[in-house]
What we know:
By secondary structure, the protein is an all-beta fold. It is about 5% helix and about 40% strand. It has a domain at about 25-95 and about 105-115. The two termini are about 15 Å apart.
Amino acid sequence: MAIRKSITMMSNTGTQWNLIGEPIKSNAYYGYGSGIATVQVIFQNLVGGFGIQGTLATHPLPEDWFWIQMRANGDVNNPYVTYPIDPYNPTGSNGGDTGSMAFTFVGNFVFLRAVLTRDYLQPVPVNPQWNTWQYGQLDRVILAL
């Protein structure tokens, strides 16, 4: 039985409008290992999108990254989860969600990374960092391999 390890992929995003986490080496690449990964996302008053990207490249360039389908909100065409999950019933303040979710996926990846995106929100504030207090944050993203 393989020993699983936990790695913090992203924490305390605070006033970040968009953020791409550092690449994390996967333990299951090119057919080795189980390929099973679980990501736990802990968020506070979050309005925005969260997703995981993977790559098969050993020295990835920006174009080598692809979205891992999280099948969020019942929309298989949207690769990332959008918060609040139910816009009519947010679980936090300021119209965002507060809580924790976990996602498990299978695949052989060389690297994985977490992504926070809010570019789809309209209208985009003139200076997003001044206004992100109202859009909440990712408190922590933990990857279990």
